[in-house]
UniProtKB/TrEMBL annotation:
Identification of the protein by name: Glycine cleavage system H protein
Quaternary structure and partners: The glycine cleavage system is composed of four proteins: P, T, L and H.
Native organism: Microbacterium gallinarum
The keyword Transferase appears for this protein: no
Listed Gene3D superfamilies: 2.40.50.100
Modified residues (N6-lipoyllysine): K63
Stated role: The glycine cleavage system catalyzes the degradation of glycine. The H protein shuttles the methylamine group of glycine from the P protein to the T protein.
Domain of life: Bacteria
Record domain Lipoyl-binding: where: 22-104
HAMAP family assigned: GcvH
Pfam families according to UniProt: GCV_H (PF01597)
Family: Belongs to the GcvH family.
Amino acid sequence: MTDLNSLKYTAEHEWIALDGDVATVGITDYAADKLGDVVFVELPGEGTDVTAATVVGEIESTKSVGELYAPLDGEVVEVNEAVVDDPSLVNSDPFGAGWLVKLKVDAAAVADLLDRDAYVALTGGDE
């Protein structure tokens, strides 16, 4: 189980796990629950430069279509092909096998993101 308190979060319901200068990015269980059953995931290609707060992909569910935003400036260094092949991983394991992309980032930029308490407050106290 991932330690949710060790992650950083965005107001767009993404989580970020930093390892050196590589940030693993996914959507939170809150977002996955609100989306419903995820049926399609479109992610940026490896080597793509992304800019914070810009749309870099799409997540479609049985309820709606959601946009995936880059949480930080960086370069896509890995894409989770397993989640492209089996989008239900976003629902079944959002903090594990359902991760989306890995970005090479300026590690200092992560400090500006939300901690777990601030994210829980943002979502109205829903864990």
